[in-house]
Amino acid sequence: MSLSDKIMADMKQAMKDKDKVKLNTVRMIKSALMNEKIKLGHELNADEELTVLNREKKQREESIAEFAKAKRDDLVEETKKELAVVEGYMPKQLSKDKLDKIVKETIEEVGAKGKSDFGKVMKAVMPKVKGRADGKQTSALVRDHLN
């Protein structure tokens, strides 16, 4: 089942269940995917869909942080529910051990010796973990291994 088919099915189910949060979130995802399709001028491939989902996830994470700073607990809870819906469409996240292994292998592949090779390692590791690991967590691991 393609992502667009899954989104349509989930949207119908959310309507039947009268789940407003899920319905609104799924509609936002569908809209973001459609906008990206129009912008690029072709059907989205899996990589492009993942990029859109990552963008939606990041927006919600940033919103949660801002709402928490403003002490708007009602909006924090709402946004956390939206984030859970978005994460449901994303691939399974890598465990810390698997991510650590990928980082170590990549460092060996590129022959990195120290901190100066950080950019080279990140450039090589990010395509391997795209959508399956947080960029901040990945960069922290790379930095730790290069020190």
UniProtKB/TrEMBL annotation:
Q: Name one GO molecular function term.
A: carbon-nitrogen ligase activity, with glutamine as amido-N-donor
Q: Which domain of life is it from?
A: Bacteria
Residue ranges of the TM segments: none
Name of one Pfam family that matches: YqeY
Against PANTHER family, the record matches this protein to: ALTERED INHERITANCE OF MITOCHONDRIA PROTEIN 41, MITOCHONDRIAL
Record protein name field? YqeY-like protein
- Species source reads Lactobacillus amylolyticus DSM 11664
